[in-house]
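Example record used in the benchmark description.
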Amino acid sequence: MEEIILYLKENNKTISTMESATGGYIASNITNVSGSSLVFKFGAVTYSNEYKIKMGVDKEIIDKYSVYSMECANDMSLKISEFTDSDYGVGVTGKINDYDPNNLVGDNATVFLSIYEKKTKKHYNKVIKVKNQTRVENKELIKEEFVELFKESFMN
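Model output (structure tokens):
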């Protein structure tokens, strides 16, 4: 994460997150890095459909694809980038080995990660299969996948 924060600082870029499955874990790890306040604008934890929609996620996307879809993750990353005028928006949604009675669609061990880049108007995506570990271990796995995707997409 330190390398990402340094990259953002050196390139005068900003980042914001809208997380569901990870409950703010990526934002927390960003803010664990000294100096991240220069590049991190905002982190939203939108566990419920209601608050995804209040943060701008299109209800029609949720209705058509479910909250557990790459389409939803892409809209989350786009809307948080727009809301905060950040260069990068991060969207994370999915299930971490959990049953959700409010959203019956979707595999119980799949997480969708999206990073939106404002300059190119492009999404960079990764589908992550979580393992039968603790929620914290799975959140760490998702954070590591975020770091890998960011580095591959923007720092090479």
